[in-house]
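testing teh design pipeline on a random one, pls ignore if ur not involved
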C-alpha cells in the first residue's frame, strides 16, 4: 500500500532548477535510500516533502492526503518526521527534556510524557546520558539524540538526512541495527539520504539516484550500483565512502 506519493515535484531558486519533475512512490514499510552527488537536490527534496519548502510544481500525498505546502509541524504531527544533518538540540535542556519537548504534541500527561521520552532515550542507547545536558554529548551521541527526538513523535514515515555522517564504523553499527529494527518491529517507513554505500546496500529495499535535480535511476541496490549512468555520475566520486 502506498504511503507517500510525490508527483512532478519541481522547485527553482533564482531561476536555477533545484528539482525537476521528481516522481517517487513509497510503499508502507519500505526502506528507500536516496543517493547522488553533492548539489543533486537530495536535501531540497526532503524539504519539499516535509513542508519546509513549497514546490513550484507537483504535489506530495502522504497516507492518502495531499500535504503539499503544509507546514512542517503539521506534517510531523500527521506522522511524517525528518532528522537534520546539522544537530541543534536545546543546549539548556537535558537529553530527556529534548525528546519530551519534541514529543509534546502527543498531549500526554506530563509524567507519562517523561516516561515515554525516557523509553525512547534508552532505545537509542543514550540511557546513561538521559539526565545530562545535550551539549555534553559527543558527536555520535548528538546523532542519536537527533534520531530520538524524531522517534519521540512516533512517526509512520521517517526521513533521515545523513544520520551516519561523522560516525566511525563502530558508531554506525548500533544505528544501523536500530534502523532495521524500526522497520521490522515497528513498521516505520524509512527514506534516508546517505553517502556511505555499504549502509545503503545493507538497508535499502530500493535506491533512488538524484543528479542535477532529476531522478537519474531507481531500482534495487544491485541494479542501481551496476548502472553505468550512476557509476559515471556518482559512484566513481563516492567509492572512497563505501566502507561500512
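output:
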Amino acid at each position: 500500500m502506498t504511503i507517500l506519493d510525490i508527483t512532478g515535484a519541481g522547485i527553482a531558486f533564482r531561476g536555477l532548477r533545484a528539482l525537476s519533475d521528481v516522481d517517487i512512490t513509497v510503499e508502507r514499510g519500505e526502506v528507500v535510500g536516496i543517493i547522488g552527488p553533492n548539489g543533486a537536490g537530495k536535501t531540497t527534496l526532503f524539504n519539499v516533502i516535509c513542508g519546509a519548502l513549497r514546490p513550484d510544481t507537483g504535489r506530495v500525498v502522504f497516507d492518502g492526503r495531499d500535504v503539499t505546502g503544509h507546514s512542517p509541524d503539521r506534517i510531523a504531527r500527521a506522522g511524517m518526521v525528518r532528522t537534520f544533518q546539522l544537530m541543534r538540540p536545546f543546549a539548556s535542556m537535558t537529553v530527556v527534556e529534548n525528546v519530551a519537548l519534541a514529543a509534546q504534541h502527543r498531549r500526554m500527561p506530563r509524567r507519562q510524557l517523561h516516561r515515554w521520552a525516557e523509553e525512547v532515550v534508552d532505545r537509542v542507547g543514550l540511557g546513561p546520558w538521559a539526565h545530562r545536558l545535550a551539549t555534553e554529548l559527543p558527536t555520535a551521541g548528538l546523532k542519536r539524540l537527533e534520531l530520538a527526538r524524531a522517534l519521540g513523535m512516533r512517526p509512520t514515515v521517517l526521513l533521515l538526512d545523513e544520520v551516519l555522517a561523522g560516525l566511525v564504523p563502530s558508531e554506525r553499527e548500533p544505528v544501523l541495527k536500530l534502523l532495521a529494527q524500526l522497520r521490522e518491529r515497528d513498521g516505520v517507513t524509512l527514506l534516508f539520504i546517505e553517502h556511505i554505500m555499504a549502509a545503503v546496500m545493507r538497508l535499502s529495499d530500493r535506491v533512488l539516484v538524484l543528479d542535477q535535480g532529476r531522478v537519474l535511476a531507481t531500482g534495487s541496490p544491485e541494479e542501481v550500483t551496476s548502472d553505468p549512468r550512476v557509476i559515471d555520475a556518482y559512484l566513481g566520486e563516492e567509492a572512497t565512502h563505501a566502507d561500512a
